[in-house]
Specification:
With about 375 residues, the protein is an alpha+beta fold. About 25% of the residues lie in helices and about 30% in strands. The chain folds into 3 domains: about 100 residues, no CATH class; about 180 residues, Jelly Rolls (Sandwich); about 70 residues, Phage tail protein beta-alpha-beta fold (3-Layer(bab) Sandwich), CATH 3.55.50. Strand 7 and strand 8 form a beta hairpin. The longest helix has 17 residues. The two termini are about 20 Å apart. Keywords: Membrane, Transmembrane, Transmembrane helix. This is FecR family protein.
């Protein structure tokens, strides 16, 4: 393990952006004396950044550790990482500083990722547009009206980054399409009450009312659905490689044209994946992968990682090419490669509110890859 890897894990642990696996790896490395000098240097840098004039003495650090241990013994509900206290006691004061810093200056909980919430991405990322049935384009980000006329006698209500339709069955429906730009997200309440969230660089095509035997929409890019229950009228999501049929459920569809595979992940209920004559059913917690060769692979999947985008986060566990395509969609940049880039997988999590520069810098600290940014182009090299 290189020193740069230790620095990378330290920064992610301190900023509380480390994945569960990274937290465990960091804790393991802390037990190794090889990193004591590096840790002390990192803590010195951290303290200097906080404009603290004097470092804590060994005696003060030891006393503080004792106090932390006493507090932990009283309140066992706090999951401060005290299971490793034994080796911390015999280590350098820099290790004690880490305990003090994490438990007194930062939130004390280290836990598995929380279940996905219904929180929609911040209103600052509402870069979206609506194309009406007559071809008119409505800028949803800058339109200040609280209602939008979508066809004669029919309006949709608009609040923040959400557009809500009513099922006006007395009108002949027209087709509307909502597009999100790079760096934008948007949510739509469809005419039947189904809720849809669009990820960046995506589109949702749907009728202004559902009048037939099916409720049918088309997705390009990525969208999460909470489908209104209606057993008599199945809900169908069309993609470029097939369709997903449901009655009432919660699921995510990822179908970007530039990606090799399409993914449907089920959170609740039941869905059927159709690809030609090939049909597969999903259970909650499963994901269907549809390849370019039209094969359907069913596998278990971490729901929290799949739904991270909806809560304003990136959760990566893939090679750099896949990661860079996702970053390019969000930050609206072009990516080019020089030399033979590593094929290793990177497991990491970041806030979408972080700058692209900061994210690339943290990936670069793994020591296996380098980035340079010129205008709107990111160059990736070994």
């Amino acid at each position: 393990m290189s020193v740069s890897r230790f620095r990378f894990l330290f920064k992610r642990y301190y900023s509380h952006t480390a994945t569960w696996e990274e937290q465990q790896e960091f804790m393991k490395l802390l037990k190794e004396a090889d990193f004591d000098d590096e840790l002390k240097q990192l803590l010195d840098e951290l303290l200097e950044e906080e404009e603290m004039d004097n470092l804590m003495s060994d005696d003060s650090a030891s006393a503080m550790l004792t106090k932390i241990m006493e507090v932990t013994a009283i309140n066992k509900r706090k999951r401060i990482p005290t299971a490793r206290i034994a080796w911390w006691v015999g280590s350098a004061a820099s290790l004690l500083l880490l305990v003090w810093w994490v438990t007194t200056r930062q939130p004390s909980t280290i836990s598995q990722p929380a279940l996905v919430s219904n929180k929609v991405v911040s209103d600052t990322n509402t870069n979206a547009r609506l194309v009406l049935g007559n071809g008119e384009v409505v800028d949803l980000e800058h339109n200040e009206n609280d209602s939008i006329l979508i066809q004669q006698g029919v309006a949709a209500s608009k609040t923040h980054n959400q557009l809500a339709y009513n099922n006006s069955t007395d009108r002949i429906p027209t087709i509307n399409t909502v597009y999100t730009n790079k760096g934008g997200t948007y949510s739509i309440i469809l005419p039947d009450g189904t809720k849809a969230w669009l990820n960046t660089a995506s589109s949702l095509r749907f009728p202004t009312s559902f009048t037939g035997d099916y409720r049918e929409v088309t997705v390009k890019g990525e969208a999460y659905f909470e489908v209104a229950t209606d057993a008599a009228h199945p809900f169908i999501v069309n993609t470029s490689r097939g369709k997903v049929t449901v009655l009432g459920t919660r699921f995510n569809v990822k179908a970007y044209e530039e990606e090799e595979n399409e993914y449907t992940t089920l959170l609740q209920g039941a869905v059927a994946i159709h690809n030609g004559n090939n049909v597969k059913k999903l259970a909650p917690g499963q994901q269907a992968l549809v390849s370019k060769s039209d094969n359907i692979l069913i596998r278990e999947k971490d729901i929290n990682a799949v739904m991270a985008w909806k809560d304003g986060r990136f959760e990566f566990d893939d090679n750099i090419q896949v990661i860079m395509r996702e970053l390019a969609r969000w930050y609206n940049v072009e990516v080019k490669y020089e030399g033979t880039v590593t094929s290793r997988y990177y497991a990491a999590g970041f806030s979408r509110h972080e700058s692209l520069k900061d994210i690339l810098q943290q990936l670069e600290e793994t020591g296996s890859i380098h980035f340079s940014i010129t205008d709107k182009t990111v160059t990736v090299s070994p």
